[in-house]
Amino acid sequence: MGWFKRTEVGITTETKDKKETPDGLWHKCPKCKVIVSVDDHAAELWTCGNCGHHDRINAKEYFHILFDNGVFTELDALMESKDPLKFEDTKPYVDRLKAGQKKSGL
């Protein structure tokens, strides 16, 4: 269902003149396919208000959920994991650490 109703028949808009909505305005639930604004989805803590589907979130978004009003004191922010035993499996542990840091954004 559209937002606007055409009052006159025969009005056409050329493809080059059609406007696309910017990315990041809407969220479509992968389970029930309901579309809501990203702001509403964030207010629901990244959970679908229709079916209850929980979306994956990153560490920073999770911290905002956990802590009151996003207020917390981060300790040892510069602390990083090391590999003092030079552990190796199918790939070096140092590579696993770097991949984990990149994936989590921490």
Overall description:
The chain is mainly α and 106 residues long. It folds into 2 domains: 22-67, no CATH class; 77-106, no CATH class. Helices cover 25% and strands 6% of the residues. A two-stranded antiparallel sheet has the order 1-2. It is elongated, with a radius of gyration of 22 Å. The two termini are 42 Å apart. The model has no long low-confidence stretch (mean pLDDT 84).
Q: How many helices does DSSP assign? A: 3
Overall tally of structural domains? 2
Q: State mean pLDDT (0 to 100 scale).
A: 84
Q: What is the overall silhouette?
A: elongated
Strand order of the largest sheet: 1-2
E-strand count: 2
Supply database-style keywords.
single chain, 106 residues, mainly alpha, 2 domains, two-stranded antiparallel sheet, elongated
Brief rundown of the structure:
This protein is mostly helical. The protein has helices spanning 38-43, 59-66, 93-104; strands spanning 26-28, 35-37.
What's the arrangement of secondary structure elements?
Layout: E1 26-28, E2 35-37, H1 38-43, H2 59-66, H3 93-104
Antiparallel strand pairs: 1-2
